[in-house]
Structure formats: structure tokens, C-alpha cells
Amino acid sequence: MPCTGKVDVIHIMRSFEKGADGVAVVGCLEGECHFNAGNLMARRRVEQAQKILDTVGVGGQRAQMYNLSSSEGPRFAQYATEMTEKIKELGPNPIRVAKNKAA
Amino acid sequence: MTTKTPSKLEKILRDGHLAVTSECGPPRGSNIDHIVKKGELIKDHVDAINITDNQTSMTRLCSLAACIRLKLMGLEPVLQMVTRDRNRIALQSDILGAASFDINNILCLSGDHQSFGDCSQGQNVHDIDSIQLIQAVRHMRDEGKFLGGDELEGKPEMFVGAAANPFADPFEIRVPRLAKKIAAGVEFIQTQCIYNLDKFEEWMKGVRERGLHEKCFILAGLTPMKSVGMAKYMQKRVPGMDVPEEVIKRLQGVEKGKQADEGIKMCIESIQRLKECEGVAGFHVMAIEWEEKVPEIVEAAGLYPRPNGN
Amino acid sequence: MIVADKKPIEEIIECLKDHKNILVLGCNECVTVCEAGGKKEVGVLASALRMNARKEGKEVKIDELTLERQCDREYLDEIRDSIDQYDAVVSLACGVGVQFTAEQYHDKPIYPGVNTTFLGATEERGVWTERCQACGQCILATTGGICPVARCAKRLFNGPCGGSTTGKCEINAEVDCAWQLIVDRLKALERLDDYEKLCPLKDWSTDRAGGPRKVVREDVKQ
Asked: Which of C10, C44, C55 sits opposite A94 (nearest CB)?
């Protein structure tokens, strides 16, 4: 995607519906969006998705928003590790577990 | 001067006396003893007693029943009636009911919004507004007809009042708004509590410029402050209330145990100053849950004894 | 437009707990503009409902569809052939759409997916405010184009009340005092003298008070 501003709640929802254990949306640093406020909108959408995911029992913590600039390779790695740890802690997506059980 | 109704308040005003009114809030329950007691406390020092109508939207015993009680004690009640809770059927019906007990004064109000009270999830009516209620009472009294056009069997002989708040915004329409109430037929006005005397006098100047003080009787509203806390609350929390900093500073200037006395003193000084204000026809002393202080204020302000009004 | 707000998903889940084949039905009109019941919101709600059912171990089919309008029969007819597959519909249209859908499909439970709130305008994206209460007898000509019925908390015809403070309403400092707006506007129109004209008692028979209303236009009727 050219900008996290293009990420909508539905994209995050569909990912979990299809079995993803986590979704990390990584945008530019706040205040440095090339399209003014794309990353800020993305953050609000992630927050909205978190609420819905909590409601339906998937767990809002599985969706996270991160910000970094394109030159920050190590920080990207750090966020990826962080996200992986978080998801490991939370365990597999209950939707996938239920799907497998049904199959 | 000839009166239009048997109202004692009207008689006193038309005879050119400075009138004194006060008000009592009905109890939050069916025990009416305390309104009887409040009435007894102040009856010799005031010409009429307003009974509030579910003020601040807290549900209370109805104004009409409390007015009837005062009337049966031989006192002169002013029935406050808000348009918040009654449609035009109920308003007319209650006016007739009040008139049947010879309640001869009514104060037409819109009422505080219900969100302030104990039934904030309730519906409000506002079928008509306070100015239209003035018109409605005058229509019933003068034309002897219902709003629907039918003849009344017995007209409500009521002296018609309304409130005015010189301190609410926009200030520029506060005199025109009084003119509008007069055009609707209002005969007496009780104002919002006055703490900013300069602003009140500025409003009165505008009132006099249009000769409005000659078209209705204006009773200046006063509420003694009990404490700095009350003054601050009124300043910050009560919509449309103008409490200048000087008032708070003066109360802060005395020790805590003497703030109430200072509040009474300030109230008396205000009355004395406003007695000199041309167009002020009397005083409406609202000592909130402090009615026992009314006689003291009235006496100290030189408004005692009261004319008999007969 | 008609402004609606989303209903909490928990409430919708509770309504649907006994149903197995569900259609989430959006509307392409007002509720799309106010982002409460258009195609996007249909997708998100359907996805949430599917995940919820799956997690609870229920086999539930949830389909999505958004009609051009739900307040016109010709568009509602588009689901006539497919409606029998479903044992419930969640309509994300306004209260009008929910009811009209229910009238067309008499034996189908139609649940509301939004709370219909008012007739209003978009102040900015994500902020809508009320402008009209459809009282049936417009008085905007006399009030400088600002409606006291919809915008004054006490719907005063001869306002403002004594609670107007620095342009705001006594109920909430965020709410504009409608009568301040009216006075300002009359001034801008050099019509402040009109303020003193008494507004007569309103005929509420054209309002909700007169019972369900109907407009019949012989000139356009077929």
C-alpha cells in the first residue's frame, strides 16, 4: 500500500476472519505523512478494529499500529519482534482454532 | 388606581407602594408541614409568596396544591407555572383549578431544562412558551375564552407575571425581550437575582428609555448569599447568573462564621440602592431554604410594616 | 439527510443469537454518507458477526448486500428472489428502511443495525448536527433561517430563555443557543426589529402530535 491511510477496518477484520494471528499496521512517523494525515487515520481505524475484535472475542491486542521512518531498519526489526512476542503470548487466533475444530 | 383582578399584590402595586414578595419551594414529598411553617414565618413581612413549580426540574409537590394550602391559611400565593411539563390543555386546566381557589397571581415561566433534575431521561412538553402562556392567561381572563375559542364558565381573575433575566445573553435583546412580554400582556415582572447592580441599572435605563417601567411593575429579585461557596457556585454553575468578583471578594474578606451575616448585609444594601432606581416597583426576596431571614431583611431595608392591601 | 449512529455490536449479536442464515443489508443513501450503514459498515459488521459465530462454534451463514435505498419498493424488490435463504435480516438503513423492508417481507424478522438519530448536516467528517425536526409547518422565514424547534432545548418560539450564556445553551456549553444564533442572524439581515414580533401558538397537528403523517401529491401521483 502506498500509505497506511488506505487501510480500512474491513481489511484488518478480513485478515482475522481468514485466520491471521495478528495484524501490524506500520505507518510513517506521526507528523510526517506524505498525504498529511494518512497514518493518523490508520491509527484510529486500528483502534476501532481493536474494539470490535474485543467484542467478538478475538482480542483487540492482536491488531497494532506502529510508526517508523523508511531508514529505520533496526526499529522495524524491533517492532516485528515485539509483535511476534505479543502474539505468541496471546496464542493462536481463536477463529482459526474454531475453524480447524469444525473441519 | 383601579385594579383588574382581586389580587392583593396588584392592589399594593397600583396603590404605588413598593411591593415585597418572596418564594418557597414545595417539599420533596407529600408532607406539606414545612411550607405551612415557611408561610407562617414570612407572612407578615411580604405581600405575596411565590410557590415554585418543580424548580431546577427536581420533582416536588405541585405548586398548585401548595398555593391552595397558603390560600386556605389566608395568605397571598403566586402560582408559578412552567411550560416544560404541561401542554395547553393541562396549563389551562390548572389555571382554572387555581382560579377556583381564588389564587389571583400567576408567574409564567418556561422552566429549567429537565436534564438538571431527577428525571433527566424524561420528555419535555414545551407546547407553548412562557410568552405564549402570558398571552393564554390574559386571553382567558380578558376574553373569557379558552384558547380553543369556547366560552369559559367563570374567568380566571389572575394578575399576570413573568420573569426577566437582565443578565442572560444576548444583553442587547434583554430590553426588547421585556417589551415582548409586555406586548404579550404581562403586568408584573420578577427579575433574576441581582448581584451586578451596575448592569441591572444599565438594563433599567434601557427599560425607562422605552417607557416600559410604566407598562408593568418590575420587582427586583434578590437572594442573600450564605457563604463564599454559594457565591462561587452561583457564579460558575448557575446558567444566566452574574456574580461579580467584588461580591466574592467581600464575602472572602470576613471570617467564615460571619459570611452569612455579610450576605444579608449585602442584600439589604442592594435593596436600599435599588429603591432609588426609577422604575423598580418592589422587591422579590428569594432566600433559598433560608426563609427565616426574610423578616430581618425586609425590616432592615425599611420595607416594614407592609400595607394591608385592602 | 437522516443521520444515524452505529448500534453497539453486542446488541446486534444478542438480537441474532437464534438465527442461522443472516443477511446484513445496507443502504446507499443517508446512512452511507454518515458512515453508519453503507457498504463499508455492512462489510465490517458482517465480518464481526461471522467471527463471533465461528468463535462460539456456531455454523452461521452471513451474507452482505447494500441496496440503493430501502425506502423505495423498487429497490427492495431486488432481494425478493433471495430473501427465502435467510431467517433474519439486519438492516443498516434508518428506521424508515428497517420498517419498509419489514413491510415488504412480512414473515421475516428485520432487526435494526443502527440508531436513527435526527435530520441533520455534516459539520465535518465524523461530526453531524441536528437541524430539523420535520414539524410539518416551517417557520424558518420568521426566525432568520434558524429553527428554534430543532435547535432550542426548550423549543421556545419567543426566546431566548434566561439560561443563554455567552452564546451557549444552559443544558451544555457545547450547544449553541439557538436564539443567540437567531438574533445574530436577524442582525446580519438588518431585521433585528422582527425580534419583537410575537410568534403565535404553534399548530402542532402537522407534527408527530397529530399522529402518523402522510403527504399526498395529486399532481405527481400515478
From this structure: C55
Backbone phi and psi for residue B79, each to the nearest 5 degrees, phi listed first: -80, 115
Among A14, A98, A99, beta carbon nearest to C47 = A14
Terminal CA-to-CA distance of chain C, rounded, Å? Answer: 26
Instruction: Give per-residue pLDDT as tens, C30-77.
Output: 999 999 999 999 999 999 999 999 999 999 999 999 999 999 999 999
Domain parsing of chain B, residue ranges: 8-300
Interface of C with A in 131-190 (CB under 8 A): none
Is the Cα dihedral B25, B30, B33, B36 positive or negative? Answer: positive
Number of domains in chain A: 1
Contact between C26 and C32 under an 8 Å Cβ cutoff? The reply is yes
Q: Which domains does chain C have, with CATH numbers?
A: 2-118 (3.40.50.2300), 133-208 (no CATH)
Q: Output the nine-digit C-alpha cell for C52.
A: 463471533
pLDDT in tens, C75-132: 999 999 999 999 999 999 999 999 999 999 999 999 999 999 999 999 999 999 999 9
Reference A16, options A57, A66, A58, A73; nearest CA is: A58
Which of chain B's residues have a Cβ under 8 Å away from the Cβ of C210? none
Q: Do chains A and C touch (3 or more CB pairs under 8 A)?
A: yes
Q: List chain A residues with CB under 8 Å of C43.
A: 10, 13
Domain B8-300: CATH class, spelled out: alpha beta
Q: What is the pLDDT confidence band of residue B14, given thresholds at 50, 70 and 90?
A: very high
Could you tell me if A4 and A12 are in contact, meaning their C-beta atoms sit under 8 angstroms apart?
no
Give per-residue pLDDT as tens, B81-131: 999 999 999 999 999 999 999 999 999 999 999 999 999 999 999 999 999
Its domain, for residue A93, covers 4-102
Helix pair angle (A94-102, C39-55), 10° resolution: 60
Question: Which three cell numbers mark C217?
Answer: 401529491
Q: Could you tell me if A55 lies within 8 Å of chain C, comparing CB atoms?
A: yes
Subunits touching A (CB < 8 Å, at least 3 pairs)? C
Contact C165/B at CB under 8 A? yes
Q: Is C125 in CB contact (< 8 Å) with chain A?
A: no
8 Å CB contact between C52 and A57: yes
CB atoms within 10 A of CB B307: 15
Question: Strand pairing partners for B49?
Answer: B22, B77
Yes or no, beta carbons of C48 and A57 under 8 Å apart: no
Rounded to a whole number of angstroms, the CA Rg of chain B reads: 19
Chain C residues with CB under 8 Å of B180 CB are 158, 195-196, 198
